[in-house]
From TrEMBL:
The lineage of its organism: Bacteria, Bacillati, Bacillota, Bacilli, Bacillales. One of its GO terms (molecular function) is ATP binding. InterPro entries: ATP-grasp (IPR011761), YheC/D (IPR026838). Keywords: ATP-binding, Nucleotide-binding. It comes from the Bacteria. This is ATP-grasp domain-containing protein. Residues 370-446 form the ATP-grasp domain.
Length: 457
């Protein structure tokens, strides 16, 4: 199957005719052909071929063709030569999200990121954003948000896309029957859909348990633990993290500590402030947790605490932002070192943490050995991503790992996120990595939609 890059133009003739320059006819191996099927996304129509004399690779679409398969705009795009004289324009890439549908910020806080994706992607594909309610399943059309040259959203009707990048923002919505049905419909139509859903902590730890390589990097972790198990872990490890299996952004996390002569301590965040409580007995600690969370404690996990490297007495962990690239390989695109705020149970920036580059953080702790430690952490992150993808049932193209390094230089994986936040890319030294992250998303869309040259892979 041939792949070439060409310039698409629109003409006002009402017929279903495509005019193809000689050079493009040759590239697509269409010389002598009178008819083709022209495809965009999941739609295709027959069209008459008329060769024209024009230098370069040009495709002119009569309005009868443009309107029939809803080609969204003119300009440079790929063409794939498929079997049976079928030619595909594209790829047509859909970014799935949701929001309040306000005219200026239709995707809420994600609007800026989606605009970046659309702006950067418009040079290599037809890319649009959409919400679940924008799909007309009867007509197999999507009323999508395209970005104009002046940065405004413009709504256009297009066929179902070749590939979908999932950035639905809500865990609750994502597990609803409507969204489950939506994903199943895309699967039945063989439309690649990544990332499938938010990760659940319990599921991730269970998946990695089955891999002897990956499991050595995961601290001892148990889902829905009974009080006796929590007490046993506190006596063995002296401190543990107790966190909701489906939580994010550090919400609902406790750091529980046991000091034999002083009792039990719970550190957590409430009302925007860090709280530290002391309990004389383990039972009184558990009563406090039950009074705050009730039955929801059944969906918690308990995890061995690790003595992380510190700066100024504050622990440091690392967000590794991983992507599949255009050759379907895992790569580390960006790393942010997160320093916990004083007294904070986590390193989240919203909880008073601060952001450093990994070189700044590791240089202060390991000095001349910092590059060696960082390279080993990168290799570990890639192997962990490969393991998680192998164990997972659905397409993954992006992972955010929260990794820690202890004083012995051992590496630990605390969490994996299928839809990682992008706060690390706000650091002035990580802006180039933020742009590279978007490039990798787009390149992986090209790969999944099969709009990649063999020599690019």
């Amino acid at each position: 199957m041939g792949l070439t890059f060409c310039n698409v133009h629109f003409t006002k003739q009402p017929q279903r005719v495509v005019y193809i320059s000689g050079s493009l006819m040759k590239s697509l191996k269409l010389s002598g052909k009178k008819n083709i099927r022209l495809r965009l996304g999941k739609d295709a129509i027959p069209a008459v071929v008329k060769p024209i004399k024009r230098a370069g690779k040009h495709l002119f679409l009569a309005s009868g063709v443009q309107n029939a398969i809803k080609v969204p705009k003119s300009g440079s795009v790929y063409l794939r030569n498929l079997q049976n004289d079928e030619v595909q324009l594209g790829p047509l890439v859909g970014v799935l999200s949701d929001g309040p549908s306000s005219s200026g910020q239709p995707f809420g806080s994600r609007t800026g990121f989606i605009k970046q994706l659309l702006r950067q992607g418009s040079n290599m594909c037809y890319i649009f954003a959409f919400m679940p309610r924008d799909i007309n399943w009867q007509q197999e059309r999507v009323y999508g948000y395209f970005l104009t040259e002046n940065g405004k959203f413009e709504r256009k009707m297009v066929p179902l896309p070749d590939v979908i990048y999932n950035r639905l923002p809500s865990r609750r919505a994502e597990t609803s029957p409507a969204i489950n049905q939506l994903r199943d419909r895309f699967t039945r139509k063989k439309i690649p859909f990544f990332n499938w859903s938010f990760f659940n902590k319990s599921d991730i730890y269970r998946l990695l348990e089955g891999d002897s390589f990956a499991s050595q990097y995961v601290p001892e972790t148990h889902s829905s633990p009974e009080p006796d198990l929590i007490k046993d872990m506190l006596e063995r490890h002296h401190f543990v993290y107790y966190k909701p299996s489906a939580g994010s952004l550090g919400h609902g996390i406790y750091r529980l500590t046991y000091l034999p002569k002083r009792g039990y301590f719970a550190r957590y965040r409430r009302g925007g402030k860090n709280v530290l409580l002391r309990f004389s007995t383990f039972d009184s600690l558990m009563r406090q947790l039950r009074s705050r969370h009730g039955r929801s404690l059944h969906s918690y996990v308990v995890q061995q605490g690790i003595r992380l490297i510190e700066i100024d007495g504050c622990p440091i962990d690392f967000r590794f932002h991983m992507h599949k690239n255009g050759s379907n390989q895992w790569v580390v695109v960006g790393i942010g070192a997160k320093k916990a705020g004083r007294g904070s149970v986590t390193t989240h920036l919203k909880n008073g943490g601060s952001l450093l580059t990994p070189q700044q953080a590791l240089g202060r702790v390991f000095g001349a050995k910092s590059d060696e430690v960082l390279q080993r952490a990168k290799q570990t992150a890639i192997r962990l991503a490969e393991s998680l993808e192998f164990q997972h049932r659905h397409l993954i193209g992006e992972i955010g790992f929260d990794l820690g390094i202890d004083q012995d230089e051992d590496i630990w994986m605390f969490e994996a996120n299928a839809k990682p936040g992008r706060s690390i890319f706000r650091h002035p030294s990580l802006r180039a990595e933020g742009k590279a992250s978007i490039e990798h998303i787009l390149e992986h869309c090209l790969y999944l939609s099969k709009f990649r040259r063999r020599d690019d892979m």
